[in-house]
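Example protein was shown:

_____
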Amino acid sequence: MWQKLRWRERAGFSLIEVMMVIGIIAIIVTLAIPTTQSAVRSSKEAGCIKGLKVIYGAIEMYKTERGYSPVHTSEASNLFLREIDPYLPEPYHIGHGTNVMIKGYRLFGWVPDNPSSPTVPALGTGAVVSTDRFGARNWRVMAVPIEPYSGLSTFYLEPNGNVSRTLDGKPI
């Protein structure tokens, strides 16, 4: 009887109990990480879609004021961002904060050579002005993930304001 009392009064956990708790925590973390990554990816993509819609509004204001589109290159370029910067809300200004307009994405705009079948040009920083600058109604803006293997989608902003995942123009 004396030994039973000492056993019950003993403080602390046994090695098996500690290992069981660590195992349960490991299982919970293993199940939670993919869900968390998926939620982060979804929120970044939603932020990109929202940002592209804000950019569309700025492009429309620019076109209303000046009569032509700020996206006027036949090569992929981000020079149009400087032109629409005054038309963007404060959080989207180029020089604001981290200098990334849409978190996790780079933006490029171009005027396709063939409006009915737009292809993605080679990504460059050249500013080749197309001969149809004032009539360029078939511009595109492309949001490309900064980290290519992050699982984020590439998005395209169409001249009608739709955002799509492919160049066929089907809205999301």
Notes: The helical segments are 2-9, 15-66, 80-84. The longest strand covers residues 105-110.
